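Figure 6 in text form: structure in, sequence out.
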């Protein structure tokens, strides 16, 4: 890693990570005001991947993302004011206030969309790579995905097509070890490695520490402009506030819990967060009711309890509907 980049690049990467962290922490602090018009999934603790990969993407490179897209959007050069306006449901948002936190689109920076559907943007990003192949340009399509997407059929179909056509697609899998409430160990066989699965399909792959921005930058740089057969890289980390906020914002089934991970209850410095992100390149080329009593709980924990209470009648009706069918 020695002499991997100059001082200015190092400063830029540090600024990028700190900026994403500050934005996510501010969103978390203000969400309880009840003015944000959507569930919001944060990427606190995962900033190094967004900053490291984003620094290597050109303005004309494509990028697509997951429900946890804030860092990816900002890393790609997205407009912070437009993203915040989107979360607040304003017409000045990057998706005209119609998409919210999980559906960010900004064609001006070639950020072509994020989605709440697990694996939903993998074929989209692969198709963007195919368009590059058809036009014969030297762009790259970057697909950010999570470890849960490795259990979806489109993951295999897309990587197979990319490998077959030798498309200029960079697959970046952020393995934070959890999918909703389920740890990796109860979802996938022991010993399975996502980047090795990609390699078996014909995609050149690699793995690394997703909290080490220098390693992220180095591995992404090697893959992103490569003219060798397809590639994948894995970088490890866990979610910190990202997991807790999903639950605190009342997203219901499909949110994340940290009950079994007490070490994640406090926001942590990304330098101490462990986890994984896999880089793969196939390129050849309601409102919270007011509290009447002072609470000793942190605001986000109090918000979690209040939202859970508000949502109980909804879940009860949902269960009754299912039992009657």
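Output sequence:
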């Amino acid at each position: 890693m020695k002499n991997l980049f100059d001082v200015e690049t190092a400063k830029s990467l540090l600024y990028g990570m700190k900026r994403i962290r500050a934005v996510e922490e501010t969103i978390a602090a203000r969400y309880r005001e009840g003015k944000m018009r959507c569930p919001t999934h944060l990427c606190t603790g995962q900033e190094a991947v967004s900053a490291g990969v984003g620094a290597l993407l050109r303005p004309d490179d494509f990028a697509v993302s997951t429900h946890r897209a804030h860092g990816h959007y900002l890393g790609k050069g997205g407009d912070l004011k437009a993203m915040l306006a989107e979360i607040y449901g304003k017409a000045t948002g990057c998706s005209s206030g119609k998409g919210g936190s999980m559906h960010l689109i900004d064609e001006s920076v070639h950020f072509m969309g994020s989605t709440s559907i697990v694996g939903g943007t993998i074929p989209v990003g692969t198709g963007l790579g195919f368009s590059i192949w058809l036009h014969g340009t030297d762009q790259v399509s970057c697909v950010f995905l999570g470890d849960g997407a490795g259990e979806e059929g489109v993951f295999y179909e897309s990587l197979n097509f990319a490998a077959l056509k030798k498309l200029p697609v960079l697959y970046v899998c952020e393995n934070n070890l959890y999918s909703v409430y389920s740890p990796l160990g109860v979802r996938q066989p022991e010993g399975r490695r996502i980047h090795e699965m990609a390699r078996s399909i014909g995609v050149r792959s690699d793995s690394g520490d997703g909290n080490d921005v220098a390693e992220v930058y180095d591995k992404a740089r090697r893959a992103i402009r490569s003219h060798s057969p397809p590639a994948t890289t894995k970088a490890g980390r866990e979610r910190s506030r990202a997991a807790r906020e999903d639950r605190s914002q009342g997203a219901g089934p499909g949110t994340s819990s940290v009950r079994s991970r007490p070490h994640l209850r406090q926001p942590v410095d990304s330098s101490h967060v462990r986890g994984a992100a896999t880089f793969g390149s196939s390129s050849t080329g309601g409102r919270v009711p007011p509290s009447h009593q002072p609470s000793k709980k942190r605001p986000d924990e109090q918000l979690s309890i209040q939202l859970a209470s508000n949502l109980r009648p909804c879940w009860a009706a949902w269960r009754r509907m299912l039992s009657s069918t």
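Caption detail: Residues 7-285 form a domain with the Rossmann fold fold (CATH 3.40.50.970).
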